[in-house]
Design goal:
There is one protein chain. By secondary structure, this protein is α/β, with parallel strands linked by helices. It folds into three domains: 164 residues, Ubiquitin-like (UB roll), CATH 3.10.20; 156 residues, NADH-ubiquinone oxidoreductase 51kDa subunit (Rossmann fold, 3-Layer(aba) Sandwich); 64 residues, no CATH class. It contains 14 helices and 17 strands. The strands form four sheets. A six-stranded mixed sheet has the order 1-14-13-17-15-16, sandwiched between helices. Strand 7 and strand 8 form a beta hairpin. Helix 3 packs parallel to helix 5, helix 4 crosses helix 7 and helix 11 crosses helix 14. The longest helix has 14 residues. It starts with 25 loop residues before the first strand and ends with a helix. Bound molecules: iron/sulfur cluster (2 copies).
Length: 435
C-alpha cells in the first residue's frame, strides 16, 4: 500500500461554460429586505450588535466578530432592524440573522472613514474592520491571513477561477483593476513581500493582458498564465504550480513563504483603504441553463436569492436545482429565500436534465480517479479502506489531504460518488473510528 503518490497536479478538464465573461456587471436595485446571518465565514459566529427597531446605516456593524478567527458583519442598507431571527443557511444549518428593511435613502454610516494604515498590524486591523473574508468561496477571515507568523516572500493573487460558469473574478480584474492594484500594493508594502504573481487561467486573455500592461517595467510583479484545468485555483495546487513549493501535510502556505489572496478579496481591501466602506456588496455570476438572463450582478450582501433570480428574468419551467458556488464545489440551496452571503460568488440554476444524478455502477478499477486527484491521493483505495472501517489505512493514505474538489467524481466512468465517499472517509479518520 502506498501513502501518497507523487503529486501529478492532474485535475480534470471540465467544460468552461464562461458565457457571462464578456458582459459588464449590472447593479441590482435595493432589495425589499436584507437578511444577514451571523455565520458568513470560517470561525466563530458573530453576535448581533443591534436589536429590533434600531436605525442602521450603510456600513453600520450589525454583527460583532465572535473571536480572533471571525469577521464583523455590516449592513448594506440604511433602514430599520425588523427582527433578529433564526434562518436556514444554504447548506441546511441554522444561524441567528439580523433582518433589516431599507428606508431607500442609502445613507452611509457617519462614523465611517478611511483607515490609517502604517504597518502590517494596522493593515490587518483594517481588514478586520472591513469585515473581510476570502471572497473566492472559502470565507476565511482576511485579518488572520494578513498576520502570518513567518516571513512571506511571495504573494500570489489567485485569478484562476477554475470552476465552470463563474466569471465574477474575471470581471473584478476588468472592471476594478485600480482597487486590485491598490490592495496588492498595500499588502506587498506592509508585509514586506518581494514578489507578487498574478496567477490567471489562459481562458481569461483580457485579464492577463490588462495585468501585464499594469505591471510591466516593475520586476516585483509577474503575470503567470495557467493551464485551464480544474482545480487550478485550489490554494495548495496553485502554490505548487506557480512556485514549485509543496505545503507540508497539516501546514499553511506561510510555512513555505507564500500568501495567496483571491483577486476579489484583495480588491475589496483596496476599496476599503480608499473609502472606509466595509464589505457590504458582492458581485455574483448568475448562470445555468434554467435562468432566463445569465449575467454578473452586484448585489447587497443579505439580499434574498429569490429577488436576485427575479432580477435576472426569473427561472425556466424545468428549474430543478440551485447551487451557491460552482458545479464542482458549490452548495445545493434548498430554499430560494436564503440570503446571498459574503463568500458567495455564483448562483447557478439548472434544469432537470443537468440536475439529474446518475445511478452509480460498480467500480471497474480503471484508476482514473487516481490520475485526476491533484493531491496525489488514491481515492479508489481510500474508498476500500473506508468500507472496511480501517482508520489506520486512512491515516496512511492521507485522506485528510483531500480538499473535496470533486475531480475524482467528475472523471469516474462508473458515475460513483467518489468525492462524497472521501468526505465520509475524512470524517471517519477525524473521529478515529467507525462509519
Ligand atoms: S474512477 Fe471510478 S471506476 Fe475508476 S477506479 Fe476510480 S472509482 Fe473505480
Ligand atoms: S475530492 Fe479529494 S480525492 Fe477526489 S480528486 Fe479531489 S482531492 Fe482527490
Amino acid at each position: 500500500m502506498f501513502a501518497k503518490l507523487k503529486r501529478a497536479a492532474q485535475g480534470a478538464r471540465v467544460p468552461h461554460h464562461k458565457g457571462t465573461s464578456g458582459t459588464a456587471t449590472v447593479q441590482m436595485p435595493l432589495p425589499t429586505r436584507i437578511v444577514l446571518p451571523m455565520q458568513q465565514h470560517i470561525g466563530a459566529p458573530c453576535t448581533p450588535a443591534v436589536k429590533k427597531g434600531d436605525q442602521v446605516y450603510v456600513g453600520t456593524v450589525v454583527g460583532r466578530a465572535g473571536g480572533f478567527v471571525s469577521a464583523d458583519i455590516h449592513s448594506g442598507v440604511s433602514g430599520t432592524v425588523q427582527s433578529i431571527d433564526s434562518v436556514h443557511m444554504p447548506g441546511g444549518a441554522h444561524s441567528a440573522a439580523v433582518v433589516i428593511v431599507p428606508d431607500g435613502s442609502q445613507t452611509p454610516d457617519p462614523a465611517l472613514k478611511p483607515p490609517v494604515v502604517t504597518d502590517a498590524a494596522s493593515l490587518a486591523q483594517a481588514a478586520r474592520d472591513c469585515g473581510l473574508v476570502g471572497l473566492g468561496g472559502a470565507g476565511f477571515p482576511t485579518a488572520v491571513k494578513l498576520a502570518p507568523k513567518t516571513p512571506i516572500d511571495t504573494l500570489i493573487i489567485n485569478g484562476a477561477e477554475c470552476e465552470p460558469y463563474i466569471t465574477s473574478d474575471e470581471r473584478e480584474f476588468l472592471e476594478s483593476s485600480e482597487t486590485v492594484m491598490r490592495g496588492v500594493k498595500a499588502v506587498r508594502e506592509h508585509l514586506n513581500i518581494g514578489t507578487v504573481i498574478f496567477a490567471i487561467e489562459r481562458n481569461k486573455p483580457q485579464a492577463i493582458d490588462l495585468m501585464f500592461s499594469l505591471t510591466q517595467g516593475d520586476a516585483a510583479y509577474k503575470v503567470q498564465p495557467l493551464d485551464s484545468r480544474y482545480p487550478q485555483g485550489a490554494e495548495k495546487v496553485l502554490i505548487e504550480t506557480v512556485t514549485g513549493r509543496e505545503v507540508p501535510r497539516g501546514g499553511l502556505p506561510a510555512d513555505v513563504g507564500v500568501l495567496v489572496m483571491n483577486v476579489t478579496t484583495v480588491s475589496a481591501l483596496g476599496k476599503y483603504l480608499d473609502t472606509g466602506m466595509p464589505l457590504v456588496t458582492k458581485r455574483l455570476t448568475v448562470d445555468g441553463d434554467a435562468v432566463n438572463k445569465p449575467q454578473n450582478v452586484e448585489v447587497i450582501i443579505g439580499t434574498p436569492i429569490a429577488e436576485v433570480l427575479e432580477f435576472c428574468g426569473g427561472v425556466k419551467d424545468d428549474f430543478a436545482k440551485l447551487l451557491m458556488g460552482g458545479p464542482m464545489m458549490g452548495t445545493a440551496v434548498a430554499d430560494v429565500n436564503s440570503p446571498v452571503l459574503k463568500q458567495n460568488n455564483a448562483l447557478l440554476c439548472f434544469g432537470e436534465k443537468a440536475a439529474h444524478i446518475p445511478v452509480p455502477g460498480p467500480c471497474i478499477r480503471c484508476g482514473r480517479c487516481i490520475e485526476a486527484c491533484p493531491m496525489g491521493l488514491s481515492p479508489v483505495e481510500i474508498a476500500g479502506a473506508f468500507q472496511k472501517g480501517d482508520v489506520a489505512a486512512l491515516n496512511e493514505m492521507m485522506v485528510d489531504l483531500c480538499m473535496g474538489c470533486g475531480s475524482c467524481t467528475f472523471v469516474c466512468p462508473a458515475k460513483r460518488p467518489v468525492c462524497q465517499t472521501m468526505n465520509l472517509a475524512k470524517a471517519m479518520q477525524k473521529k478515529g473510528g467507525a462509519k
